[in-house]
Protein 1
Amino acid sequence: DIQMTQSPSSLSASVGDRVTITCRASQSISSYLNWYQQKPGKAPKLLIYAASSLQSGVPSRFSGSGSGTDFTLTISSLQPEDFATYYCQQSYSTLMYSFGQGTKLEIK
Amino acid sequence: QLQLQESGPGLVKPSETLSLTCTVSGGSISSSSYYWGWIRQPPGKGLEWIGSIYYSGSTYYNPSLKSRVTISVDTSKNQFSLNLSSVTAADTAVYYCARHRAAAPSDYWGQGTLVTVSS
């Protein structure tokens, strides 16, 4: 099984800050890496797919990069609505799509 | 606009079978290229992939749950279902259904349904 490890597990930041979240895979997953945002009581929302492609309707302040085993999600200028939990997910392994443990982004 | 909606009992007794159905509207579950999956999230914890099914019936399960999971599809009702047997308190979670392509993320999700395992 492919294990996904996110860091940090939690993060405090202020509106306007630039924030980076890291995701590491236990083996190479090429660019089969996706990022989701989840707010309390809601289903996850797809932000980034294939490591760096922005899902339609997602603000351009969100960006993703990386390939192989190391990936990052960057929010260029935090907005109040961005405070949420973020998950990475690999879609490389044949229909066994594991998630990272999540990163909770909180207001400082 | 595609919509997915989970339904089923909110309370299941230990050792019994958890059964949920996901009804798809605004699109056909028989569309080629799409898989239909289940993901769960224990209260206050992260997301866990349970498994997926293609409209033809091909299934793919999380190895850690494979011995207890069955996912099936009913194309005539535009629904797919999850059965999880021999449940324990550790299976208490919000269960989501979702759509995805092979090697691609889930782009449409249901709102989720909380299932509590308790006597």
Protein 2
Amino acid sequence: DIQMTQSPSSVSASVGDRVTITCRASQGIRSWLAWYQQKPGKAPKLLIYAASSLQSGVPSRFSGSGSGTDFTLTISSLQPEDFATYYCQQANGFPYTFGQGTKLVIK
Amino acid sequence: EVQLVESGGGLVQPGGSLKLSCAASGFTFSDSAMHWVRQASGKGLEWVGRIRSKANSYATAYAASVKGRFTISREDSKNTAYLQMNSLKTEDTAVYYCTRPGRPDCSGGSCYSNWFDPWGQGTLVTVSS
């Protein structure tokens, strides 16, 4: 199975900050990576697919980059509603696997 | 609007069975694959399995942790997918989400859509004596 490792596991930031979360795959997955946002008690929400494509309706402050094994999710200017947990997911093949999550908390 | 609504969760004893349902609306269900993903309390996300459409022979695939115990099926006439869970273990305790493939990306010559959008609200399965 492809292992997905996110870093950091938790990050503290303030409104207006720029935040970057990284995700590393244990083997190459081309650009087949997605990012999700999950708030407590809610289902995950797709933010980015195919490593860098912005899901419809998602604010442009969210962006994704990378290919192969190394990927990043960047939030350019944090808003209060962005404090949540973020997961990456490899979409290259079975079984689809997720990173362990990065919890974004208010400083 | 695409909607997915899970039901059927509850408390079951180890070794028992439970069948979850996922009612879909707002898209052509019969043309879509459907996936199940679970999340134990305070933990991350684990893909459980998927079923493809009739055009793709209703092909199924499962995570190793549930293979042989869980079965995904669908009833296109009812726009509903199911997750039959047998021989349940305490480690199967989780919120179970149904979801479908997201918008495909065809930039590489072939199309991929192995990401998930949207998700249902989830249904809690608790395996405990």
